[in-house]
């Protein structure tokens, strides 16, 4: 599954919606034929990736929120130059990456998928490039860990 470069948007992307709808239709059709497990692994881990208001990046994952949260903490801790500030109850982690303050949160989308939201600031101003870098690194780490090509 190839993702196109993200572009700033203010609402749910039409392409992301169509991709998600197509994925649901494909999984539904293969489930009827008894091939749901194969289709689930072929579809990959990342369902959609988009940017909101030039500074916030959202990645929808085909992983439960608890699994995604653990992966996000590991990935962000590798990128951060110091210790992370972590709020386990809210699933929010903050850390300094290349001199920028990165904030990453994980939300449960449903029982089997989740959403990772990444924002970054530099000198109090939003920093979309840093947020994109952190988001792309987290996505790559999750793909590597969960076997997506």
**What proportion of the residues form beta strands (DSSP E)?**
25-35%
The CATH H-level superfamily of the domain at 45-145 is START domain
Mean pLDDT: 74
How many β strands by DSSP? 8
C-alpha termini separation: 8 Å
Principal-axes geometry comes out as globular
The level 1 CATH classification of the domain at 45-145 is Alpha Beta
Summarize the biggest pleated sheet.
8 strands, mixed
Low-confidence segments: 1-43
Please count the helical segments.
Answer: 4
How is this structure best described in words?
The protein has a domain at 45-145: 2-Layer Sandwich (Alpha-D-Glucose-1,6-Bisphosphate, Chain A, domain 4), CATH 3.30.530.20. The chain is built from four helices and eight strands; from the N terminus they run βααββαβββββα. The protein has helices spanning 14-33, 36-43, 65-79, 128-145, and strands at 8-9, 46-52, 56-61, 85-87, 92-97, 100-108, 114-122, 125-126. With 149 residues, the protein is an alpha+beta fold. Strands 1, 2, 3, 4, 5, 6, 7 and 8 form an eight-stranded mixed sheet that branches. Helices cover 41% and strands 30% of the residues. Helix 1 packs antiparallel against helix 2 and helix 3 packs across helix 4 (128-145). The radius of gyration is 16 Å and the shape is globular. Strand 2 and strand 3 (56-61) form a beta hairpin.
Task: Name its key features.
single chain; 149 residues; alpha+beta; disordered N terminus; globular
